[in-house]
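Bench notes, bay 3.
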Amino acid sequence: MNYADLFRVTLPETALEVAALLVLVVDLTFLRKAALKLRIYVVSLLGVAGCGAAWWALQQQSNDWFTLVSSSESGLLVTGSYIKIAQIGIVVLTALTLLLLIDSDFTKHVGEFVAVVLMAASGGLLICGAQDLLVIFVGLELLSLGLYIMTAFAKSSGKSAEAAMKYYLFGGMSAAFLLFGFSYFYGLTGSTNLSEIQLAIAQSGPSPLFYVAWILVVAGLGFKVAAVPFHLWAPDTYEGAPAPAAAFIASVSKVASFTLLLTLSWNWMMYQGQFGYPMNLVNQIKLHSDQTWLPLASILLIVAAVSMVVGNLAALAQVSVRRLLAYSAIAHAGYILLGVAIFKMHTGNETSIFETEIPLLLTQKAVLYYILTYGLTVIGAFGVVSVVERATGSDQLDSFLGLHKRNPLLAAVLLVMFLSLAGIPPLVGFWAKFNLFAAVLGVSAGPVPFALVALAIAFSVVSLYYYLQVLKRAYVMPAIDETPINVHPVTLTVHLMIAVAVVVLGCFPELLLRWIESFYRVI
């Protein structure tokens, strides 16, 4: 193995880890006796600087997704294309989360919290680029352990401890399912590399044990993305975790997990790795990929449909805005899974693999567009909820009464975030759903995709109702307390920047689309 190449590819993760160590050293030595506010400022900005260093390291890497790092052709880690897009998204969302920490007061151990955030983000970067089952599992555990710790960081809150315990127990079970499924894949193929697993399955054809392994993997990853029926941890975790931790879970964790699902789909069911193979083997891979993917897609489609229905209906009954956002996240996971599941349901009339890849790439780009814009929007939503919660002591719906009088700018940010989550034009959430649903119908025009897209649109209308319940209290219903809510200038600036980004990307959706397109090499 070329360790110079390995270090080059893992330079973004290294930058985050070094920043985490630097934060700990500075906070526990030089700032040990400083005021809490000063410590929060310094460690948060150091964390953001670490994210900036990771972003710079990512810019030095190739946009070509064929860049591999390993002693063999199959590779352990990959850079470029959709992987690099997701990694840049994780770095940016992590920086925004750390900026929201500046006005928080849930812990005195701010250095440790920032270090855990950075190390969890490095796990997310590792997940995105991993091409080996063992590397995937290491990245998932690094991310998950950080999330468990962040959830429990508000030591004075009973809800935080309860949420962390539930999250940890469910996470342990999901890790067991995932590792068990991985062990089956290794037993079936004799390899832990995704491309080699694809080749082995293509040569021998899928077996019943292969489908059992896939179901176990779906169960494990379904927990990470909070899809039904693996969602039971999400409402309590979103409600009990500190606001920056909940925002990180809702954004960074989702981006990393859905990128992993794209990687599994692209490696096992698509045609990556076959360039240079004999044509008869290429055709064999195509045939078995078609035979393999339909039952696997059916599993994901069922999970997607149930997640859309359960998430939106359960959100209607919530009086806690945090829990409302949790069930909303479950519904959004269903929408995204719809795009992942129909990743390979083409018409079967293609004469070459390249005719099939074009609509598949469109679906992949639509999924990336969705997870990035959703992550940005949900961080802004949790930021507003955290400010209101600190001012009123509650995240209940009635805590938002008269918000437009108490802080008009904060109410405007809330309006933009929630309407974007509902998919109202011209905000970016509308284009995220439009691009995804259009890509799904473009890949497969059968009755099943059409029915599922219709279901998704119908429940998007349902979601508008519960988002409007919050906005109704912020703008229409009279306030019980009209005391102004003061917001830290940095926090307010971050909120306004996110809101402006949501509006601008909604009015000019081609800005983000062209940026995503720039990472794809024309074949």
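Next record in the batch:
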Amino acid sequence: MALQKRELNAAALGRVRGASSQIQNTMRMVAAGVPLAAEPKRDRLKAVLKARAGMSSTLAETMTSSIVAAGQTARATPEAEAAVAAAPGGPERIFGTVDFVGVAFLERGARASRGVARVAFRDGRPLGTGFMISDRLFITNNHVIGAAGAAQGLTIEFDYERDVGGSVRTPSRFAIDTNAFFFTEERDDLDFTLIAVGAKLDGPKSLCDFGWCALSAACDKHALGEVANIIQHPDGRFKEAVLRENRLVSRLDTVLHYVADTEPGSSGSPVFNNDWQVIALHHWGSPWRQKVDEQGRPIPTSVNEGIRISAIVKYLRDKHPVLGDVQRTLLEQALSLGESISGLAPSGAGAPGAATQPHVDAAGNVCWTIPVEIAVRLPGYGPAPVPAPAAVPGPLPPADPGVAEKIKPSDDFSDRAGYKAAFIDGFSVLLPELSASQKRDAARNRQAEAGDDPFELKYHHFSVVVNRKRKLAFFAACNIDGSQAKAVDRNKGTVKPLDPDSPELESLGDAEASESWFPDDRLREEDYAGQQLYEAQVVPGFPDPRSMGRTERMFQRGHMVRRIDPAWGRETMALKAEADTFHFTNAAPQVGFFNMGSAGKLRIPHTGGGRLWRSVENHVLRNAAADRLRVCSFTGPVFSDDDPPWRTEVIEGFKLPLRFWKIAVWAENGGLRSLAMLADQKPVLDAIGELPEAATDEEAFDQVSRVKDFLSTIAEVERLTGLDFGAAVRDGDIRAGERSHEVSQPDEIEATLSQRRRGGTNGRASARRNAGRRRNRRER
């Protein structure tokens, strides 16, 4: 049922009245020259500065403190506010301008506009606006399309606009396929309808030519005081853009308000930030009757309301389980795009407008040219400073543009989407199913909401389920997108596309033992092993904690999901996903050389130099990147009652897992393929008779490299772990029905995988490609 205009108008006006104090405060900060000081949530402001300005955590914190202090000064008295607004640039003067954006802003805006279309009756009468959120799904307002029956007489019209020469383009019109997908919500503070676009009715272009603007629940997309952009068909006219004229003035749980001296946009239009990420679905606009603030100064009178995209995403995730299989798959695919390279379709690939390095202008301001230029005045440059109010903190030191701080993962997990079952197009690869006894031992997510898996911990691009009895993960499940894979240099804080042929891949899989790891407050501290398990280890013969020999022989915090695997998508998302892998819930104790793949120098025969486990991981990632594949990867320890106790003085009853398993799943020639591998550290104990920490013979540590690696089967991993990976994964096993096969050299793994990949020409091409890569690496 469609939301009635009268009901919508009354509800929206009520929300505007309730938000009047936010609106007035924002406009006060705009007038004072510190618009970002209107943002009431300090953590959000810091996250926005980090994500959009490319700042380090320390720099963003300092900038946030300065902005907050400047806002406090502006609110103090009308006189202080006037002084802040008039000051030409005191020593700690902070201001935000909206006049500078990178030139990529225009290109990305043009890309975003392609997915915006007019909703009209088949006789041409206009009805509203909407936009694509995936290659099949289209979103608009419930009060535009409120019922599946009403959609039958409507069309989606793309390119209803003029070209750069002013000529009218030929539109392409499509039907609406409510049988494939139809979902609507008539609540006045949600007011959206999601539909599938059907067959083309007429026009020169295909649906894939128009791309999409994805939905994301990320919490770093906007701050109050910023400007926004709207692409729309106002009153059904040709497509128009209102760029950088809409000021975000208030935020409620499900809606955003933005004011502008412009004509209200049409219903169903996307509201973008300056990175062209969708932040709201426009659905209402009306004159605001309050025309002056408390000081009698005029303020904009046009208030628009949009439904927050984060609220829509959350609602869809909550309703996701009640959908049918086909609709659920389409929805999962659409929501997974919200973490892609930029939120825009890759068919029009283009890098987002990047932040410049900090520079000092003639007036003595340190500037970053980003979607919002922020400047901080430094002492000793430009004209003599004007004294600033004492409430503003000291001057900001210049940043070193060559060094970036390693990103610390956010402890606000509301924007984590986790592992996606429908990640591989056309297939559903579910999380492994725990047995009844395993569910009794599983740690519960204390922040799980109704309809969520109570045991799943969602991170960026992966999920973890923890065994609270053993204090380690039952499994970790990761989505890998080879088409968007990134190589993250944690020391430099840089991100670049992953070269599948680069030898750097050998060193990108794991981090050094000195890295900082982080807790996850969604679990109780006693549910999982933290830093106490790994610190203060004794390694005889290597008393120096900085010794690489000690590092290779101690038990390290080994990644279950490697830090490189979820690092894909836009640069900020790749950094966040990589940082998420440094949660203790994703760690398990692994002998150093095994974790780092660095035992080759020990020259112990038949060990593969400790790189066999990594060979499978790198083979999967290289092929994903080279062939632009999507892969689902599962990893975990094998828990056995015979596992030896370790560090029980730190964690009572802790046992050390000796074997680990990994399963990779991908699509090839119309079907799913899967491969399982096992790694066994038990030969370490067989060789020295005790755990490395307890050994006294330094030479005995050389035997640590005697880890056995096996190509296994899905059925064998299920038998060892008690997990159920589902029929689709079992049926796709390229080694189904065979015995586990011990391997000793990395090339043996690649050869086996290439031979077993079913598909004739594709398999032979892959084998030739891998042989070429091995030859190139030897030549290097």
